Structures are given as C-alpha cells and as structure tokens.
Amino acid sequence: MSTITLIDPATGQPFHELARATEADVDAAVARAVVAQRDWAALPPGARADALRAFARVIEEHVEELARSEVRNSGHPIGSARWEAGHVAQVLNYYAGAPERLMGRQIPVDGGIDVTFHEPYGVVGVIVPWNFPMTIAAWGFAPALAAGNAVVLKPAELTPLTAVRIGELALEAGLPEGLLQVLPGPGSVVGERFVSHPDVRKVVFTGSTEVGVAVAAGCARMLKPVTLELGGKSANIVFADADLERAAASAPGAVFDNAGQDCCARSRILVERSAYDRFLELLEPAVAAWRVGDPSAEGTDMGPLISAAHRDGVAAFLDGADVAFRGSAPDGDGFWFAPAVVRAASGDRVAREEIFGPVVAVLPFDDEADAIRLANDTVYGLAGSIWTENLGRGVRVSRAVKSGVLSVNSHASVRYWAPFGGMKASGLGRELGPDAAEHFTETKNVFYATEA
Ligand code: NAD
C-alpha cells in the first residue's frame, strides 16, 4: 500500500502517514456512493436536515481536536484553526435548512399542471486545495449533501488530515456509510478520476487557475457541470480621503492572513499618490506588530508556509524587488518567511502574479479612474477592498471593479450565507449563500395533463 507522509510545516519534520487512494479506490468509493445516494435522496427532507444538524453537533464537539490537527498539518495559527473547524459546523447548520426549502415552481399552462422539481445530480466530486482544508471542503459537501447528493472528497495531498477526520465524524454522527467519503491522493489520479468517472455527475474544484482549466476541459468532454474557485490577485484600494489609520492597521490581516496563502489575499495595495508615503509610514508598525511564530501558541497571527518548495517560490518574488520593509519570522527548521512590503509598478511580476505568500505590492494611483483601471489590470477577479469616506465613490468603484467579492471600508470576504466566487480567471459559478444547495440540483419539468 502506498502512503502519504505528512510534514509539520512549523518543524519541517514528518509526523504522520496515511494511505494514498488509487484509481481503483475511487471506483469502489463511487460505487458505494451511488447506492448510499439513492437512499439518502429518498429520505423525507426533515430527516436529511436532522442528519446534517447531528453532523454539525459532532463537529462542534471536536472543534479543539480538529483545530490541533490543522495546526500540525497546515501550520495554521490555533485561533484561526478553531474558527475554521467551527465554520464547518456553521456551514452544515446553515445548509441543514436547505432540504425543506428546495422547492420547484408551478408554471401556469393550459390543459394540465406544469411543475418543476430540483433533483440531485447523484454523486458529486469535491476537489480541495491545501490552504483551507476544512472550510473549502465544507463549502462543497454541506450544500451537496443537503440537496440529496452523495459526495466523494479529495483533499490536497499536503493537508489531508482534517478532511479524513471529518469523514470519520460523519459516520460517528450517523450519516449513512458511503454518503461522504474522503480519498486522499494525487490530483493526477484521484482528482482526474472524479472528472472522468461517468457516475460522478458534478465536480467542484478549488485550486489554481491552471489546474482548474484542465479540470474544466475534462468535465466538458464528459458534459459534466463544474464549479471552479481559482486564483486571485485582489486589490486593496485606498483613497486619500479614507480613514488611513484604519486602512493601514487592517491591511496586514487582509494579505498576510494564513501566511498570504489565501485566494482572497489583497496582495496589491493601490494607494492614491498624495497618501502613498503616509500610508506606508502607517503600514510599517502594523506589519511589525503582526506576530509570526509557533502556530500552536495562542495569539499567533501567522505560522509557517506550507512547504520548503513553496517558501522558495515565494522568496523568488523578492529578487530584484524594491522591498520597503519586512516583518519578523522565527529562525529554525520550519518553513518560515518574514512578511514583505514591496514598492511596485503595475508591470512588475510581484504586482501581476498570484504569489500565495506574505508579500504585498504597494502601487500608487492618480485618481478614481486610474484606481479602477489598475484594479482591473489583472486576469483575476476574485476579491477586493475599497477604502474611502466618500459614499458615492465607494458605490461607483465597487460597481466598476470586476471581482466577485468586494468590501468597502472592510476586508470581509466570506460570510457563508452570502455568495462567494470569482470573475474572469478566478472562477466559474458561485459557492455559499442561499442558492448553493440549488446549484447541486438539476431542474426537471413535468407536465401533468388533466384533460382526457
Ligand atoms: P492546485 O490547483 O495545485 O490543487 C488543487 C487541488 O486539485 C488539489 O487537491 C490537487 O491535488 C488537485 N489536482 C491537481 N491536479 C489535478 C488534476 N489534473 N485533476 C484534478 N485534480 C487535480 O492548487 P493548490 O496549490 O492546492 O492551491 C492553491 C491555489 O488554490 C491558489 O491558486 C489559490 O488561489 C487557489 N484557491 C482558490 C480559492 C477560491 O475559493 N477561489 C480558495 C482557495 C485556494
């Protein structure tokens, strides 16, 4: 049996091994899922809702355990990891309300009754990246299960630990065998089989744009619907009329959270030219106060990067860059990286590519039109923030920036009861929010003739 060795990113040391799934394992899991799904979809909606609430309760009882595992496996600070585990329970509770609310329509027709039904796809494949192993998994499996599907879930090879445990907790909570199965393994084997397997009827992929395009192409060949949550290069736009103190104090969290390994990271800060120097002056102490260190210690803001290879890739972005200042990072064998703030121009690599690490490019702009032009000068369109005390400007700019998730005078990106997803190369479709369960159904239209 082939195994995956897990490395603790805070020490660089291996700490756990688990079985690596094969293509045959996927086929066997899908066969079990097909059987489990039939019974699950046949349950009354209230019974499915109760089962999801029971699952949420078991997750709540294991928040501390899941959080400790995430610290070890992903290097997330303990406070963030607790939030993530709790978020899984919240998402489950939210979508536990969906089975009883998923309803079709009655269309007025002559000679009979025309009704639409929302029917589950059957088996859904959920492919998860390494940066938020628990939350992103839940965004897929919770609404999919609520809509009456079974789920096969592939965590990233680097960070499968918590997803595997969540799969075990589903069984402890009483979810039927085969309904939610977690298959750690390589994308080229497990992920590709989700795409090519005829009984996996929908795929949800979160990860890089490059792999997302390949997954979408594979799904197109199978005429299989796919939701894509991909990369980002989001802008944090700061106008001179903004509350600069607040904007600067919150900027480190908006890009260095999860060590910048966040699709919504505001990795470009666009500052109106007249406020540029003042903003950097205010940002420097905020970055110095950003606590980088032992992720298991309470109060740590940022842990290590996920791997040595990824850290080296992030470091390469600083070659030849005009680094304004850096935060701190511990010495030692972990994959540490001191956050960096770079003065940049729009053509610079650091201002164009997704870095997925704690490096932020700060660029000046001249006026509102220039800010919008720069914000949209990227292939991506996931998130972004706008800081201004001018309400009209906040409205105008938020409507003009081509991103799926924006916030004005805040850095909020994710509220599970609101839709989330990207425009342009950042994705296709939306997750979360009131409509997500419906996205895991197909509409059937039936006409019942009432005339002989
Ligand atoms: P990745 O694309 O390398 O891998 C993502 C997942 O896809 C992993 O589970 C991987 O094993 C699997 N995979 C790899 N090749 C595959 C294939 N050929 N077929 C099917 N599956 C395959 O991404 P990553 O490095 O794990 O994550 C980082 C990326 O994810 C970043 O670009 C980031 O912006 C993006 N991301 C986006 C969101 C969002 O919601 N928009 C959220 C988190 C991360």
TrEMBL record:
Classification via Gene3D superfamilies: Aldehyde Dehydrogenase, Chain A, domain 1, Aldehyde Dehydrogenase, Chain A, domain 2
Coiled-coil region: none
Catalytic residues (positions): 229
Keywords for the protein's UniProt record, in alphabetical order: Oxidoreductase
GO molecular function: oxidoreductase activity, acting on the aldehyde or oxo group of donors, NAD or NADP as acceptor
Protein's name in the database: Aldehyde dehydrogenase
Family note: Belongs to the aldehyde dehydrogenase family.
Signal peptide per UniProt: none
Domain Aldehyde dehydrogenase: 3-446
UniProt cross-references to Pfam families, sorted A to Z: Aldedh (PF00171)
